[in-house]
Amino acid sequence: MANFKVKNGLQAGRYLLNSTTLSGSTIDLSLANMFSTTLSSDPAYAFTNPPPSGTAQAFSVEVTGGTTNFTNDAFATTTYSGTGTYPSGGTSQTITNGLDLSGDGGLVWIKARNTDTRHALFDTERGITKMQNSADSAADTTVGTRTFTSFNSDGFTLGDEGEGWGRTNTTGNTYVSWTFKKQSSFFDIVTYTGTSAVQNISHSLGSVPGMIIVKCTNTAKNWGVYHRSVGSTKYLQLNTTGEANINSGFWNNTDPTSTQFTLGTQSNVNGNGNTYVAYLFAHDTASDSRIKCGSYTGNGATTGVFQDLGWQPQWIMIKNTDLSTEQWHIFDNVRGVVTDGADQRLEASRDVAEAAADAVDFTATGFYPKTVDDKTNGSGHSYIYMAIRGAAATDSAITWPSSVKWPSGLAPTTPAPGTKDLFTFLTTDGGTTYYGKKAAEGIA
Question: Which tens digit of pLDDT belongs to each residue from 263-287?
């Protein structure tokens, strides 16, 4: 950067022919004075490395508007029909959902919709030969690659069912797969070995978990579930209908943090020498969040109390936490959630086929629990949920640093998708204050 003096001893910094394309939300002023980007998210920009106070620097950001889909890069629901047979084998098939499982990692959860076939959970930490069932306490089932063949850069591939497990790709069956990709503030997977002593397990979720689901993988143990609305003094079990019960042996009465979660001495989650897998789901309250974990009290009416998420859900799991007779109910908008109609329901805690009932309504900003029974809206009963944001795209929006002063006192609008605008900025006090202006709109 070349400096030159201007009026009253102020120096100006000038970059010659320096421009760069932004790859994130940090605008490093030591690199260039011209930045460009095409939006595919809602960035909150930060300006770094300004010149020292007394040196003026002007720079520009050329922004092409785009759309933000908050969820399709992290989660997918896919329905398909089986093509495999046993014992002769049939046809394998690849499920393309746009999620990079081979590179980023994740979980694939499969359930036959039309039969009582067991759930099949595969994740990139345990590998393609290890299968779990959310409705069972058994250890990992070891399978060959004729059941689950690979995690791919845009989905996964299923085998021809020649091994006879029949859980993922059998001709005559219809299936749903829910795929959770590892992503900050959405989902993470951790494996660990138990010690029978209190221990902290590190994770890479990047935020405080809203829900943690743990399974022992080498021997039969019930699943253990932590949920923020129940708290760390209690536990639930994914494979049972049990209510939330007090037991310090699960989470040692210690809430998880953005970097770790704590285990007590209970063997379901921390038996000495046993191996475990933990699935961590975020609770994200930001405007661009993908997932929220919350709770409500049922009112026993045909329309329950509205749950405001701030966005439309596409997938939700609900559990009654004070009755020992209710299942874990899963709904999604691909199989069908119908306003005031029959919603397609599967149960994480049972291997039963799909059933239909008016149980929940999705809206543009949240959901209503429905029915007068205890599944989702029993009068006076407590419920927890985990909800995932819908895949509808919205126009991207920019959050500029609060240190920017705009002529009107308000930040200008973000350009519409496909439209290019130019924003200019000036600082003279070492980055304490920036003077910003939209310099041009609709640049060709």
Answer: 999 999 999 999 999 999 999 998 8
Q: Is residue 337 part of a domain?
A: yes
195 assigned to some structural domain: no
Cα-flanking dihedrals φ and ψ of residue 336, to 5°?
130, 115
Domain contains 376:
yes
The pLDDT of residue 6 is above 50: no
**pLDDT range class, residue 15, cuts 50, 70, 90:** very low
210-221 mean pLDDT? 98
Report if residue 323 sits inside a domain. yes
Residues 354 and 429 in one domain: no
Confidence of residue 408 (pLDDT cuts 50, 70, 90): confident
pLDDT value at 231 more than 50: yes
> Does position 27 have pLDDT exceeding 80, yes or no?
yes
Domain holding 292, by residue range, is 284-392
Reduced 3-state DSSP string for the chain: CEEEECHHHCEEEECCCCEEECCCCEEECCCCCEEEEECCCCCECEEECCCCCCEEEEEEEEEEECEECCCCCCEEEEEEEECECCCCCCCCEEEECCCCHHHHCEEEEEEECCCCCCCEEEECCCCCCEEECCCCCCCCEECCCCCEEEEECCEEEECCCCCCCCCCCEECCEEEEEEEECECCCEEEEEEECCCCCEEEECCCCCCEEEEEEEECCCCCCCEEEECCCCCCEEECCCCCCCCEECHHHHCCCCCCCCEEEECCCHHHHCCCCEEEEEEEECCCCCCCCEEEEEEECCCCCECCCEECCCCEEEEEEEECCCCCCCEEEEECCCCCCCCCCEEEEECCCCCCCEEECCEEECCCEEEEECCCCCCCCCCCEEEEEEEECCCCEECCCECCCCEECCCCCCCCCCCECCEEEEEEEECCCCCCEEEEEEECCCC
The model's confidence at residue 41, banded by pLDDT at 50, 70 and 90, is confident
Cα 444 from Cα 428, distance rounded (Å): 31
Instruction: Give CA–CA dist 438/444, Å, rounded.
Output: 16
pLDDT digits (tens, 9 = 90+) for 160-208: 999 999 999 999 999 999 999 999 999 999 999 999 999 999 999 999 9
